[in-house]
Amino acid sequence: MQDFITRLPKAELHLHIEGSLEPELMFALAERNGVALPYASIEAVREAYQFDDLQSFLVLYYQGMSVLRTAEDFFDLAMDYFRRASAEGVVHVELHFDPQAHLARGIELGVVIEGLARACRLASRELDLSSALIMAFLRDRPADEAMQVLERAAPYWEMLDAIGLDSAEHGHPPQKFVEVFERARALGIARVAHAGEEGPAAYIAQALDLLDVCRIDHGVRCLEDPALVERLRALRMPLTVCPLSNVKLKVVERIDDHPLPQLLEAGLLLTINSDDPAYFGGGMRDNFLACQRAFGWSEATLLGLARNAIEVAFMDPARRSELLVRLESMA
Ligand SMILES: [Zn+2]
Predict the structure, then answer these.
(1) Residue 154 Cα to ligand 1 middle (Å)
(2) What are the pLDDT digits (tens) for 207-240?
(3) What is the Å distance from ligand 1's center to 180 Cα?
(4) How far is the CA of 193 from the centre of ligand 1 (A)?
(5) What is the pLDDT of residues 133-176, one digit of tens each?
(6) What is the tally of structural domains in the chain?
(7) What is the DSSP letter of 137?
(8) Where in the sequence is the domain holding 313, given as residue range(s)?
(9) Which residue in the list 88, 94, 197, 198 is annotated as catalytic?
């Protein structure tokens, strides 16, 4: 089964590229850029990765990205992830990036996007790994600031596959970002949003009603509202579920308690993703494996989940057909 999961062509739709920063690269970049880290060793960083909830994770997450300064750093960050992901059988990655976290440190948008885009091009050539860019807004920052970032991104609008909404969910409902998402819609940029991870089911409904999103990141708390579940099912609205992340951030206690079986049973369009793999205990293969072991999933179930991700990914039709053929050859 481990071999089957590795060979399964996996598309990852919910990944924060800054959350793929492994301690080794964090140290290497800190040295290259002369950044002082509050850790004595790579082991000390790993120990610090024991957090209790979303907020304590976010503190570490923002601290870690202080080593990212130049376009080359962002290129190295993404290539490091693409190589690891490709070795696990990942064929397509949609990366969220957080421009506000970098702008706040004086790192221009162009530095971030050009570094990431160069890695995306190289990954396509060298690893046969396709990708998409999702520019995410930090929901715990003011909506005005998000709007300014969207406008500042004008030279790069063509390169964005979507905008997203992430970071601390409590007290920052989708409603806060109606105007920003309205502007993106007018520009013809697709929209996704985190909702119903630690926030209530009502935030998922708001993301649908007010932000006109084409998928929901996480969304696991939809189960608290049966009418919403039915609506998501009827819409075939994709949910990008991140099982190991949910365990690490205590959305659920153990993987065995994860609501994935109920979500599947409800007929929802689910995908499996790693979220912040460096911090949450594993990449795509580990997420699939953990679920397979916990829920006893068959090869058919695993194929179905991998197929969902390819079907709803931001990719051109030729690439989609190619990946679906590759997937069906395993059935
Ligand atoms: Zn996320």
Answers:
(1) 24
(2) 999 999 999 999 999 999 999 999 999 999 999 9
(3) 19
(4) 9
(5) 999 999 999 999 999 999 999 999 999 999 999 998 999 999 99
(6) 1
(7) E
(8) 2-328
(9) 197
